[in-house]
Amino acid sequence: MLRFFTAGESHGQALIAWISGLPAGVPVELEFVNREMHRRQLGYGRGGRQKIEKDHAEFLAGVRHGKTIGAPIAIRIENRDWKNWEKALPVEDADGADDSGHDAQRRLTSPRPGHADLAGALKFNFHDARYILERASARETAARTSAGAVAKLLLREFGISVLSHTIAVGPVKLERAAQWNEIESICANLDSPLRCVDAEIEARMKAEVDRALRAGDSVGGIFEVVARGVPPGLGSHAQWDEKLDGRLARAVMSIQAVKGVELGTGIANATSYGSEVQDEIRYDGEKKRFQRSSNRAGGIEGGITNGENVVVRGYLKPISTLRRALGSADLNSKASIKAAYERSDICVVPAAGVIAEAMVGYVLAEAFLEKFGGDSLEETRRNFQGYQKQLDEF
């Protein structure tokens, strides 16, 4: 069973990713993993933290001579900003005040609306939300991206690719479907400011970010993840928690600030007639495969992949930290106060797309190994090839 966990705080010493269940023999290309992490840091509207951190995955266990060995994989990502927080967040107990009398622990007692600050403080009985925001921070997704990159490397061995692009920033939206070659091109272009396949729309998106910056505000949007080459038959209809669309929705919804998830054109489908939204079936004799005339289902029917591209959209709210602070209440005095401001981004839609690639890649790799198994890559490949033969003979 494929599993992964992360540990670490935003301003702690490091982030850790732990992955277990990958078969032995999967090539691990460090350049690819680090490129994925670099892509997560890019995007117009990112904040000053990205100028400090140069995320690099340090593999501590589970990979030898460039391949997985069937053991758990441990990855460490250094937080360069830790040097500025050592006195505030020491592992061992400390005094809590520096020589000048200022609060060295950098307490946060004015919770930010929309963040985990207040809910977490109430849950864990903290009258300081510092510990909550440190773990709730989207900085944690650097570790997820490293784990997802490894999952994507497994999928790549079987011809499966997972990429993303930006659909909307604020009210500015791409109103047409993006083609796979366009998505490939925009993901390969690290200079693309917002990773939108239409340059004119992207320029308008950029102007929207500038508008939010001038206003001391933040702006959300929509990203789309597309997985190509996914075979039919991953996931199951048999139990509620085996349905792949539900698992994908959970994974993408778990990303900080994502408040909605869509499979295919699910939102538009809800206000349409059945005759307008079902994907009609035909058989391609040359390819020996059943195919659909469209892909409004997003590649999943009944919780099972159907052979079309898997398409998942995430709806990202504007991030909660604003320079133009909103109203709040102090955790100790209960007095009305302005919410705290921490160094932050204006727009993170392209970055969220990369994180969602990692999460979608992980869920697909998990479902792939559930179906095909294998303690070694060679065994997994034999099982996969046997299934391909079954599909050819169906």
Keywords summarizing the entry:
394 residues; alpha+beta; Chorismate synthase, AroC fold; five-stranded antiparallel beta sheet; four-stranded antiparallel beta sheet; globular
Structural description of this entry:
The structure is a single chain. The protein is of the alpha+beta class and 394 residues long. The protein has helices at 30-41, 49-52, 117-124, 130-136, 141-156, 180-188, 199-214, 244-253, 266-269, 274-277, 349-372, 377-393; strands spanning 3-7, 14-20, 57-61, 63-64, 67-68, 73-78, 161-169, 172-173, 221-228, 258-263, 281-284, 289-292, 300-301, 304-305, 310-316, 327-329, 336-338. Helices cover 33% and strands 20% of the residues. It has one domain (3-89, 106-393): 4-Layer Sandwich (Chorismate synthase, AroC fold). α1 crosses α5 (141-156) and α1 (30-41) runs antiparallel to α11. The relative contact order is 0.17. The strands form 6 sheets. Strands 8-7-9-15-10 form a 5-stranded antiparallel β-sheet. It has a 4-stranded antiparallel β-sheet with strand order 1-2-6-3.
Radius of gyration: 22 Å
Content-based structural category: alpha+beta
**Portion in beta strands:** 15-25%
Estimate the mean pLDDT confidence: 93
Strand order of the largest sheet: 8-7-9-15-10
Residue share in helix:
25-40%
SSE sequence, one letter per element: EEHHEEEEHHHEEHHEHEHHEEEEEEEHH
CATH topology: Chorismate synthase, AroC fold
Q: What kind of sheet is the major sheet?
A: 5 strands, antiparallel
CATH class: Alpha Beta
CATH architecture: 4-Layer Sandwich
